[in-house]
């Protein structure tokens, strides 16, 4: 390709196109950079910081940072790995993530990241915050206990469904996903067929009555760890 | 009376832990024994607001010892919530297989791991020998059988529920997987060996009981009512049926009661000294209405067992009491081994049924607001009762676990043993051993009785008429 540029990730040379982000270029080259808020169908916002890499020595969110010719990227240094572990760890303690009875278990990206990083018990103390469940909608449930504030639902509703059902509200620790309805999800334009109902990486926005329909063994990450599909696509 | 405190090890081989207080009257005689629990976590409140489809998986957190029973009882209740009264044949049989697998591994574990040391070495044998290690040393074949049988049951659970503990197989209205023919063939390979071992353990329990029948008749034994589910034709059915209650003599108190109405027949008494409630048959009142559940009760209540070897064993069992209910506490072990054999026979029957490979896993119905699920868990009848609102959230949960159903009987058993073996104001090693053995006959799960998620120490204390503690022994 005429306009292709070259970057290196952990010493490996990779061909990329100038309009790509680091994450996209890495994916295409079969290099997995962990991520959570980023989703291929949504515009990246760089909020979760799981995808942070060292880019010419400076930390950058790979999901938003465009590639530049000659860029030197470090993805798997001990410091970066530790940073990612810390972030994942914090997400666990800041919510109420009870994997053992969560219907998303086995297909949850947060849980899968924790497994991939070998996190069995968080190093930070659990906060056990008081969170609500919004079950007012007939077909979709919002369990704030499991929210990681990735805002995928916000973006999916706006960008893919042409609606505006969700919205980040509040600041800091108080930040949460709100809904643009009179009181609750049941008052919004949300429909079960909305993409916003299926892009949640965790068990926060879930379709009702699906529950544990998928048996253990056939869930997304039962067979191979998160990221293996990308690593398998080495070209 | 001298105030003396001694602390030694007590009830090592009860699943989960509790505390026993033996109360003395003015003359220093045993007036009462109380088995009580020191920890409580409000599980029924924790579950409020959770979506109903999560409940069969969530309730398994109640207890690390009998999660499969809670899983199935809750799933049965949730079948009602989604308006399903009849599962597809594949779903019902997969659930049954899971349940018999659970029964098999639980009974095998209890017998080989916890009970066989008492039966093989005697209650007064050195505690350093009277344990599973001692059994492994002296009877290595037996110890291996115990391990293999438990493993077999656990593998069945894994194949049907997805995991050995905390699986997800039973979902409201059905199951999420069937049994592949490859899995079936693996289980079929070993079933004959399993049944042979079941016969062996049944023989040990039977021979022991018959050899010691006079001593056991007076060992924490007492007359009681008995309650269990039975099939419509009166057969033993561990997975599903209607409620039957009989007197100590075998007369019906009620029969073929739809368990959706259980609360019209069973009430629960609260006592200040226990977090565990005391269930009783309403029409008889708390004084006379308490009852036993579990293997002994089930053998007593059913009219017959629908598998040939277990049925022959049942007849054998009842011949000791001329066909009347057996009220001997220690006969639980014999009854449990009959059920172990029955579960093995049922597993074989199911494995040979091609419905297990069917693809029709789910049934549908009209949503309801309230439902009850009952199952005969290894330790006895387990009640799960829920209300679910129009948003699909649980608003009420009431559970009566097997061990709670046996609450009064366990207290009676300890009291009986204490009356007979307490001399003076001291908890001797011999008394402690016997308290332990009597409680163990009921295979209590104190962990799920109190809905505690951890383990707790078990302590035996002696209190005089003035309420002073005069002796104490601890085992953890
Ligand atoms: S994936 Fe890049 S910041 Fe979340
Ligand atoms: Ni239990």
Task: Describe this structure as you would to a colleague.
- The complex is a heterodimer of chains A (235) and B (476).
- With 235 residues, chain A is α+β, with helices and mostly antiparallel strands.
- Helices cover 19% and strands 16% of the residues of chain A.
- Chain A has helices at residues 22-28, 78-94, 109-116, 152-160, 228-231; strands at 5-9, 12-16, 52-55, 58-61, 72-74, 133-134, 140-143, 166-169, 176-179, 205-207.
- In chain A, the strands form 3 sheets. Chain A has a 5-stranded mixed β-sheet, with helices on both faces. Chain A has a 3-stranded antiparallel β-sheet with strand order 6-7-10, with no helix packed on it.
- In chain A, strand 3 and strand 4 form a beta hairpin.
- Chain A is globular, with a radius of gyration of 18 Å.
- Chain B has 2 domains: 4-40 and 412-475, no CATH class; 63-163 and 179-404, Cytochrome-c3 Hydrogenase, chain B (Orthogonal Bundle), CATH 1.10.645.10.
- In chain B, the strands form 5 sheets. Chain B has a 4-stranded mixed β-sheet with strand order 2-1-14-15. In chain B, strands 7-6-5-10 form a 4-stranded mixed β-sheet.
- Chain B is globular.
- Residues 63, 65-66, 445, 447-448 of chain B line the site of nickel (II) ion.
Distinctive features:
heterodimer; A: 235 residues; alpha+beta; Ubiquitin-like (UB roll); Alpha-Beta Plaits; 2 domains; 3-stranded antiparallel β-sheet; 5 helices; 10 strands; 19% helix; 16% strand; B: 476 residues; Cytochrome-c3 Hydrogenase, chain B; 4-stranded mixed β-sheet; 15 strands; disordered N terminus; binds FE2/S2 (inorganic) cluster; binds nickel (II) ion
């Amino acid at each position: 390709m005429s306009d292709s540029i070259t970057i290196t990730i952990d010493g490996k040379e990779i061909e990329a196109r100038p309009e790509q982000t680091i994450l996209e270029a890495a994916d295409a080259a079969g290099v997995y950079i962990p991520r959570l808020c980023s989703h291929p169908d949504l515009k990246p916002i760089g909020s979760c910081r799981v995808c942070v890499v060292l880019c010419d020595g400076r930390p950058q969110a790979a999901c938003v940072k465009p590639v530049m010719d000659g860029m030197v990227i470090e993805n798997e240094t001990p410091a970066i790995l530790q940073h990612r572990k810390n972030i994942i760890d914090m997400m666990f303690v800041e919510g109420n993530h009870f994997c053992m009875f969560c219907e998303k278990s086995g297909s949850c990206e947060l849980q899968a990241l924790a497994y991939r990083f070998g996190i069995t018990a968080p190093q930070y103390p659990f906060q056990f915050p008081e969170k609500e469940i919004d079950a007012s909608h007939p077909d979709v449930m919002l369990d704030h206990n499991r929210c990681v504030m990735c805002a995928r639902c916000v973006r999916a509703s706006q960008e893919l469904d042409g609606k505006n059902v969700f919205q980040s509200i509040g600041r800091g620790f108080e930040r949460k996903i709100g809904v643009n309805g009179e009181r609750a999800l049941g008052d919004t334009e949300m429909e079960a067929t909305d993409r916003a109902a299926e892009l949640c990486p965790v068990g926060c926005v879930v379709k009702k009555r699906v529950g544990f329909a998928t048996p253990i063994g056939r869930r997304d990450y039962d067979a191979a760890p998160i990221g293996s599909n990308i690593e398998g696509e080495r070209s | 009376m001298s105030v003396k405190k001694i602390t030694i090890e007590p009830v090592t081989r009860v699943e989960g832990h509790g505390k026993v207080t033996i109360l003395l009257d003015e003359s220093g005689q045993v007036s009462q024994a109380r088995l009580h629990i020191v920890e409580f976590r409000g599980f029924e409140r924790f579950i409020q607001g959770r979506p109903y489809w999560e409940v069969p998986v969530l309730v398994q957190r109640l207890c690390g010892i009998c999660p499969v029973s809670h899983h199935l009882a809750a799933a049965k209740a949730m079948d009602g919530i989604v308006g399903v009264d009849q599962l597809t044949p594949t779903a019902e049989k997969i659930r049954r297989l899971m349940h018999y697998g659970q029964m098999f591994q639980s009974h095998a574990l209890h017998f080989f791991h916890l009970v066989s040391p008492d039966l093989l070495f005697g209650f007064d044998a050195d505690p350093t020998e009277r344990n599973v290690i001692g059994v492994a040393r002296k009877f290595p074949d037996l110890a291996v059988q115990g391990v293999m049988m438990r493993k077999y049951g656990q593998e069945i659970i894994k194949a049907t529920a997805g995991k050995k503990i905390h699986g997800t197989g039973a979902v409201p209205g059905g199951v999420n997987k069937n049994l592949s023919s490859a899995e079936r063939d693996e289980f079929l390979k070993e079933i004959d060996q399993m049944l042979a071992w079941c016969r062996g353990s049944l023989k040990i329990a039977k021979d022991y009981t018959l050899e010691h029948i006079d001593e056991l008749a007076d060992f924490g034994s007492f007359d009681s009512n008995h309650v269990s589910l039975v099939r419509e034709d009166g057969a033993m059915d561990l997975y599903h049926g209607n409620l039957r209650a009989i007197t100590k003599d075998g007369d019906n108190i009620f029969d073929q009661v739809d368990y959706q109405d259980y609360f019209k027949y069973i009430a629960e008494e609260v006592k200040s000294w226990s977090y565990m409630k005391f269930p009783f048959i309403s029409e008889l009142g708390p004084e006379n209405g308490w009852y036993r559940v579990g293997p002994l009760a089930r053998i007593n209540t059913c009219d017959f067992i629908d598998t040939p070897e277990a049925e022959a064993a049942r007849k054998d069992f009842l011949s000791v009491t001329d066909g009347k209910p057996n009220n001997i506490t220690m006969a639980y072990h014999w009854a449990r081994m009959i059920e172990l054999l029955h579960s093995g026979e049922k597993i074989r029957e199911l494995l040979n049924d091609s419905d297990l490979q069917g693809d029709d896993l789910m049934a549908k119905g009209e949503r309801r607001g309230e439902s009850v699920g009952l199952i005969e868990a290894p330790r006895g009848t387990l009640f799960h009762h829920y209300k679910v609102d129009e948003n699909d959230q649980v608003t009420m949960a009431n559970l009566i676990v097997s061990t709670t159903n046996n609450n009064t009987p366990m207290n009676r058993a300890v009291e009986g043993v204490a009356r007979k073996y307490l001399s003076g104001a001291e908890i001797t090693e011999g008394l402690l051993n016997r308290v332990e053995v009597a409680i163990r006959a009921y295979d209590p799960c104190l962990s799920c009785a109190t809905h505690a998620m951890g383990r707790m120490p078990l302590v035996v204390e002696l209190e005089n008429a003035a309420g002073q503690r005069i002796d104490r022994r601890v085992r953890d």
